[in-house]
Amino acid sequence: VILRIDTGDAVPVYEQIRLQLLAMIASGTLAPGAQLPTIRQLAADLGLAKGTVSKAYEMLLRDRVVESRGRSGTVVSSQPVNPATAQQALADAADRLAVTAIQNGVTRDAAHAALDAALARLT
Amino acid sequence: VAVAVERVGAIGRPATELFAAEHGVAPTPEGLELCRRYLSRARQFRFIGSFAGLLLGIVLTQTVGINLITIVPGWFVGVIAAELFRLRARNRSSAQRTASLELRTASRYVPRRLAWHSRALAAATVAVAIAGLVMPWPSEHTALLAWSISSVAIFGIAELSQRAIAARTRPALPPAIEQADDTIRRVGAMAVGYAASATLAVLFGLVCIAGRGSGTAPANLSGTMTVVGLGAILWGIALAVVEHRFFWPTVRAAGRARPAANS
After folding, report:
1. Which of B90, B92, B94, B101 should we substitute to test contact with A (largest number of A Cβ atoms within 10 Å)?
2. Which of A47, A67, B90, B195 has the greatest number of CB atoms lying within 10 Å of its CB?
3. Whole-number CA gyration radius for chain B
4. Pick from B75, B105, B227: nearest CA to B166
5. Is the Cβ–Cβ distance between A64 and A81 less than 8 Å?
6. CA B121 to chain centroid
7. pTM listed for this prediction
8. Do B96 and A5 make contact, defined as CB atoms within 8 angstroms?
9. How many CB atoms lie within 10 A of CB B27?
């Protein structure tokens, strides 16, 4: 399971990490109970500051997508994601998609097609 | 010494293929190159550490000879230095970066039995040292303190090194290189475990001998401690030999694939 980031992207790196982890959890690539790498390990592997990875993990913890289990580290939560949190995350992601589409002059249909393709790929 | 270090670090293709086959690394060019570089660096540091231990023994005893009491710790320092050398931070200048989400912990690379072996030896060394210090008969208190503090330090350094080996930076890699990298981590972490156990066994032996007491000490106890101490030192040397054969396989285990004939 590979995480990819682009430090030159307009989307903050912590957000890239958060979104990819969310996508992996939503698609079942990361099953409930799956252990995530430590902040130190992921930060070192990606060549980032620990705070950047920590911020992504904290946001996932806050949304209860993952949970901290002391010595066992951070694991994917076995509880279903809170509907309100899911709705908010969806709205945020939709905003980002819309902004990207507008900035790149992509038509509404092309943006819908890109979303459909992503859904088809991940589900 | 420089010529010897250079020669020790010159690893041929047959030796690399033997190492790869023994540790289950796929013989791809990238995987073999990773193994060759690791073997080269590790052998050089081990040689330097052992040689420094040999010189230290000569200086301390003022006698030209092989002093295993200093060579084994020197070799341990060499093993640790080889692994720490690989921890140097790499410059990640590329904007696009990848990482595997696979969790890497020391327990993944070090067998539980080996980990407990080091812990038990460190604990036993401290326990015998404390016993030697509180017993009513005279014993070598300075030596007891020095060996027991050294054993705790060696145990701590080994544990931290094994964690650092597991956490060492790794971008997402093709499966063959990832497997080779995993093997090198396992060999490195186990080498540190064996080296720590061997050194701790020697220290335990020294503590037993230093704490055996003299004068009013019961003769049976004193004799037993001496025998146990000498046995532990021999055990430490045997562990060092086992580790060397594990790190530098020269005899093929039965049933394993042989390296390519043209190598």
Report:
1. B101
2. B195
3. 21
4. B105
5. yes
6. 14
7. 0.75
8. yes
9. 17
Residue B210 confidence class, pLDDT cut points 50, 70, 90: confident
Q: Which residues of A touch B168 (CB under 8 A)?
A: 44
Taking residue B123's Cβ as centre, other Cβ atoms within 10 Å add up to: 15
Contact B169 A44 (CB under 8 A): yes
State the complex-level ipTM: 0.71
Instruction: Determine what percent of chain B is predicted with pLDDT higher than 70.
Output: 89
Helix (H, G, I), strand (E, B) or coil at A63: coil
CA distance B203 to chain A (A): 32
Only one residue has tokens 């010595």, namely A71
Angle (deg, nearest 10), helices B175-210 and B112-134: 20
- Give the 3-state secondary structure of residue A35: strand
Q: Which two tokens stand for residue B100?
A: 């595997």
End-to-end CA distance of chain A: 16
CA B142 to CA B129: how far, in whole Å? 10
Q: Is pLDDT at B125 greater than 60 in this prediction?
A: yes
What is the least distance, in Å, from the CA of A45 to any CA of chain B? 5
Q: Confirm if A16 and A5 have CB atoms less than 8 A apart.
A: yes
Which residues, other chains included, contact B106 with Cβ-Cβ below 8 Å and sequence gap of 6+?
B115, B159, B162, B163, B165, B166, B189
Predicted pLDDT at B251: 53
The answer to whether the Cβ–Cβ distance between A73 and B103 falls below 8 Å is yes
Residue whose structure tokens are 């009013």: B216
Query: Which stretches of B168-260 are DSSP H helices?
Result: 175-210, 219-247
Residues of A in contact with B99 (CB under 8 A): 2-3, 37, 42, 45-46
Please tell me the distance from the alpha carbon of residue B112 to that of residue B106, in angstroms, as a whole number.
10
- Which amino acid is located at B185 in the chain? R
Distance from CA of B183 to the nearest CA of A (A): 18
B176: nearest Cα among B30, B36, B7, B23: B30
